[in-house]
Amino acid sequence: MDKIEPGRLGIWRPWSMLDGDLAKDLEDLGYGAIWIGGSPRGDLKIAERLLAATDRLVVATGIVNMWATPAGEVAASYHRLHDAYGDRFLLGVGIGHPEATQEYRSPYETIVRYLDDLDAADVPVERRALAALGPKVLRLAAERTAGAHPYFTTPEHTRAARETLGAGPLLVPEQKVVFDTDTGRARALARESAGYYLRLRNYVNNFKRLGFTDEDVAGSGSDALLDALIAQGGAAALAARVKGHLDAGADQVAVQVLGEDDPRPALRAIAEALA
């Protein structure tokens, strides 16, 4: 089975903020994929609506949470979508984080069992991706899926992830952006967005692997941490960050526009700047 080729540019957006009109407009702007965030439900009705509204766009989940959705349920949804839309759907799955569920235990073993269940349900390795930050899960993504979908990272992480994955597997990091040239206002929005993740140990551990200190991850985060994680500014600055991931080995970057009900202006500006 051929590797999915989603193009260089994608978006990441919570499922509750996606609809067919936005999907079609993004396809027309040249974006190759939508990564559905916010732990979409296992019936994947939102993916079906986005696929129905578009002709070429790849629709991926970023991610279906393994704790919330049994593998059998999402496998049935995968087959329904594949039967209707062929290879335009990519099933992204992941473990989430410990603080989100009281049932969180043995994360690595849980991931392995879930992938085993997807195997048993005939979900092809080439049509699924795995949320991955650390080296161990990145290696698992390379071995058991089409590739990795790291969330809330930097181009430096992308470079290390590519080295861990090797040349073949898909690598699609998510990148948060604030389309605002007012530095104070942009950084305030970035700090508001980052606060949640600074309370989650898997993200904090990843920041420390990237060289950030206890002081950087304390409280609402240092300016250096925020600026490294969340691109802020005009089109050129945002496009430069996206290009940084691509130059570091990403196949595609899934751009998440913060603070905008309508992400089209920011996404149009990024696409034009990269063109």
UniProtKB/TrEMBL annotation:
It comes from Actinomadura bangladeshensis. NCBIfam families: F420_MSMEG_4141 (TIGR03620). InterPro entries: Lucif-like_OxRdatse_MSMEG_4141, Luciferase-like_dom, Luciferase-like_sf. This is LLM class F420-dependent oxidoreductase. Residues 21-103 form the Luciferase-like domain. It comes from the Bacteria. GO terms for molecular function: oxidoreductase activity, acting on paired donors, with incorporation or reduction of molecular oxygen.
